[in-house]
């Protein structure tokens, strides 16, 4: 299953970009990172079907790493070919986008900078795939 982060804005060369790249290199599943302009530009249609759209949204569901891994594992086992994680611009996502999404996910009730959210998401994607592979990186307590 392709794990695809689609984010508004440019990460360019930055500490957050380096962190994103570091975790992206560790992900053993197919992975892609795409950027859209801050304003305008359409989210591309899924490259493969069936797919799932996950909006990173402060109103979304907070999940443990194990729950997130289980969700990705279930979608993979159901034959989902692409899971797209959408990170909005400064004002987030509109109601229409929320209604269309397959899942709303948050990193807690705090607001995170968009560049940090990308790096955090990449780390959680690596952690989830490591959990599913039985890799010792994740320690549950």
UniProtKB/TrEMBL annotation:
Enzyme class at the top of the EC tree: transferase
Keywords: Cytoplasm, Methyltransferase, rRNA processing, S-adenosyl-L-methionine, Transferase
Keyword Methyltransferase: yes
Coiled-coil region: none
Binding-site residues, S-adenosyl-L-methionine: 88, 107-112
InterPro entries: Alpha/beta_knot_MTases, RlmH-like, tRNA_m1G_MTases_N
The EC number(s) this enzyme carries: 2.1.1.177
Family statement: Belongs to the RNA methyltransferase RlmH family.
Known function: Specifically methylates the pseudouridine at position 1915 (m3Psi1915) in 23S rRNA.
Oligomer status and interactors: Homodimer.
Name of the protein: Ribosomal RNA large subunit methyltransferase H
GN (gene name): rlmH
